[in-house]
Amino acid sequence: MMRAWVLPILLVLSGSAVATGQIFKGNPGTAAALLLTFVALAGVNSPLIFPRSTGAQEAQRRSAVDGRPVVFWRPGCKYCIRLRIRLGVSARQLHWVNIWRDQEGAAAVRAANDGNETVPTVVVAGQPYTNPDPAWVRKQLSPSV
């Protein structure tokens, strides 16, 4: 769990240090802008922007019932962030599995990607797709969902 927060914490600490340096140079406006930028980057790289994760077994069980895709992801992955942001509110319709918190999810990703933990891996109707285009993922959502 802690490693998911390492990058966001480092970004906030770095931003604080840079902002403090700017304040000592007499540039409070620049300091505030830089601190806000670092905090925004920390937020985007944190697990907070992703819908609540479930375990791989639970996600696959639910997917079998409702037909919604399963997304295997990990915090700090720029491709996962791109997928999440480009899906917008549609992201809540998917089942999300954080592979850093779920060993079965990590094993499923390795099985689909020749032993590599390449994410995002999206499973649609039992078929895995590695780093698919967000527009394609959105099309996989049924209109009734």
CATH architecture designation of the largest domain: 3-Layer(aba) Sandwich
Mean pLDDT: 92
Tell me the count of domains: 2
Question: Per the principal axes of the C-alpha atoms, what is the gross shape?
Answer: elongated
Main pleated sheet: 4 strands, mixed
CATH superfamily of the largest domain: Glutaredoxin
Provide the β-strand percentage band: 5-15%
Number of helices: 6
Helix content, binned percent: 40-55%
Q: How many angstroms does the end-to-end distance come to?
A: 31 Å
The rounded Rg comes to 18 Å
Structural class: alpha+beta
Low-confidence segments, given as residue ranges, are none
If you had to describe this structure to a student in words, what would you say it looks like?
This protein has a four-stranded mixed β-sheet with strand order 2-1-3-4. The chain has helices at about 5-25, 30-45, 55-65, 80-85, 105-110, 135-140, and strands spanning about 70-75, 95-100, 120-125, 125-130. The longest helix has 22 residues, at about 5-25. Helix 1 packs antiparallel against helix 2. It has two domains: about 5-50; about 50-140, Glutaredoxin, CATH 3.40.30. The protein has about 140 residues and is α+β, with helices and mostly antiparallel strands. The mean pLDDT is about 90.
Question: What's the topology here?
Answer:
Layout: H1 3-24, H2 28-44, H3 56-66, E1 70-73, H4 78-87, E2 95-98, H5 103-112, E3 121-124, E4 127-130, H6 134-139
Short description:
It is built from 6 helices and 4 strands.
